[in-house]
């Protein structure tokens, strides 16, 4: 970690004098602070570096070194606050290059190598890669292994099996396998790759439980009261009820409205805005029973008229646009009821803000993060050029919505609602065992459950 700061030179002294950590004009600035060594109780030096992770956000890298006893320590902290929702990342490793994926593990995150059945509990924040995580786990397991084999042979034998399997993974002899990062604070990350397809890299956001909020030191937002005397929601009527802002925990207002989508079903649109911190969120929830089959909708977008079609993408729906090299896993965008143009615009803006500087002005719109390679930047720029052409109606493309809960919808432009749209096909399909498991349907019992009470 110390080598990160060598190229900075005299900037460390200037940053320390300014008393601020900041990044300006793509140059890294370090702040140095004297702090007490936890090992020898003498003064050591802590260095702080503010940097931006591509596709992610700004973090603070901290490095402590004591010249008296030689003790050193490295960790990271998020530069912002807790995120609105928790986040879960999962990467399926299939080749040696996947070990190089960058990983940000905050101090509230757990890491699990699923096939290895080993989980790293929440602890010190790290900036590393998949190889570094797995190497650290194997090193920790090997610590005192000889003593363990002598004192508790059964436990030692089982751990030896895990170590051997982990080394096979590191050697590339156990592909494919998966690694997951789960962070209720939302400040952890596994880097994606523009060549990833559906099922390779996945990001899911989730609402924190009261226990997770308590562990993070956040106030719990209690359940909303009934909306009317009978507990029913009246269609097309806007309901307002008090809530607590997930961002700053101040009181705010949530608006809710049930809308009938023609030839589809009822959906609930929810909007929350906070006057204190400016937080805003929009979400769409679909209701009703779980259908027996999933649904796949394929739309060929040929003219600007098609961009104005209404589209509902549920939380469980995967989105693909083969001509644009675009794939969005279920849960990434949440539920959205908008137009085709609006959905693509949101995907473009979210990705652009993660990959390139979010605050770059018009003359520096192609300013990139320090660690973004030239080849990778060129690939992303080509991707955004195609996406921009599609949003402007200058490029024909196909939208594929695959929803195992059949809760997504695309507006038909056929003259008769009962007639098929020539540019759109809808087909039902049998859910896979993996989809059933992800949706929690495998363990769901809907008949005869009263006998178990």
Automatic annotation (TrEMBL):
One of its GO terms (cellular component) is nucleus. It comes from the Eukaryota. Keywords: Metal-binding, Nucleus, Repeat, Zinc, Zinc-finger. Residues 35-192, 243-412 form the Zinc finger ZPR1-type domain. The keyword Repeat applies. InterPro entries: Znf_ZPR1, ZPR1, ZPR1_A/B_dom, ZPR1_jr_dom, ZPR1_Znf1/2. It is found in: Nucleus. GO terms for molecular function: zinc ion binding. Residues 444-453 have a biased composition (Basic and acidic residues). Its main location: nucleus. Residues 432-453 are annotated as: Disordered. Acts as a protein folding chaperone for elongation factor 1-alpha. Belongs to the ZPR1 family. This is ZPR1 zinc-finger domain-containing protein.
């Amino acid at each position: 970690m110390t080598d990160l700061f060598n190229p900075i030179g005299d900037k460390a002294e200037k940053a320390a004098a300014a008393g601020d950590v900041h990044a300006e004009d793509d140059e890294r600035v370090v702040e140095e602070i004297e702090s007490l060594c936890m090992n020898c109780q003498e003064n050591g030096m802590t260095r702080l570096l503010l940097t931006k992770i591509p596709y992610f956000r700004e973090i603070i890298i901290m490095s402590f070194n004591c010249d008296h006893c030689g003790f050193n320590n490295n960790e990271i902290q998020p530069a912002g606050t807790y995120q609105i929702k928790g986040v879960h990342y999962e990467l399926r490793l299939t080749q040696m290059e996947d070990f190089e994926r960058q990983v940000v593990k905050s101090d509230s995150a757990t890491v699990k190598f699923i096939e290895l059945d080993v989980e790293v509990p929440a602890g010190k924040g790290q900036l590393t890669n998949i190889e570094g995580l797995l190497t650290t786990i194997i090193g920790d397991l090997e610590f005192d292994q000889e003593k363990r084999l002598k004192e508790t042979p059964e436990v030692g034998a089982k751990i030896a099996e895990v170590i051997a399997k982990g080394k096979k993974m590191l050697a590339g002899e156990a592909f494919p396998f998966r690694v997951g990062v789960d962070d209720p604070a939302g400040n952890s990350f596994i880097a994606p790759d523009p060549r990833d397809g559906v099922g390779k890299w996945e990001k899911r956001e989730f609402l924190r439980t009261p226990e997770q909020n308590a562990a993070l030191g956040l106030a719990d937002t209690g359940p909303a009261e009934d909306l009317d005397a009978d507990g029913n929601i009246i269609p097309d009527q806007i309901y307002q009820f008090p809530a607590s802002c997930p961002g700053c925990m101040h009181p705010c207002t949530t608006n809710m409205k049930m809308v009938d989508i023609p030839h589809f079903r009822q959906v609930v649109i929810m909007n929350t805005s906070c006057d204190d911190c400016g937080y805003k969120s929009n979400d769409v929830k679909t209701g009703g029973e779980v259908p027996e089959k999933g649904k796949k909708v394929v739309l060929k977008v040929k003219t600007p008229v098609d961009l104005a079609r209404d589209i509902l993408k549920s939380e469980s729906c995967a989105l693909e646009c083969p001509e644009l090299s675009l794939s969005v896993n279920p849960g990434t965008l949440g539920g959205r009821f908008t137009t085709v143009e609006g959905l693509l615009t949101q995907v473009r803006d979210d990705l652009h803000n993660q990959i390139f500087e979010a605050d770059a002005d018009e003359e520096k719109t192609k300013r990139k993060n320090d660690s973004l390679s030239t080849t990778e930047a060129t690939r992303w720029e080509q991707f955004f050029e195609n996406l921009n052409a599609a949003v402007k109606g200058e490029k024909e493309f196909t939208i594929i919505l695959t929803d195992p809960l059949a809760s997504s919808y695309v507006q038909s432009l056929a003259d008769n609602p009962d007639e098929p749209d020539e540019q759109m096909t809808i087909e039902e399909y049998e859910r896979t065992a993996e989809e059933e498991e992800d949706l929690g349907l495998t363990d769901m019992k809907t008949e005869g459950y009263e006998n178990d009470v």
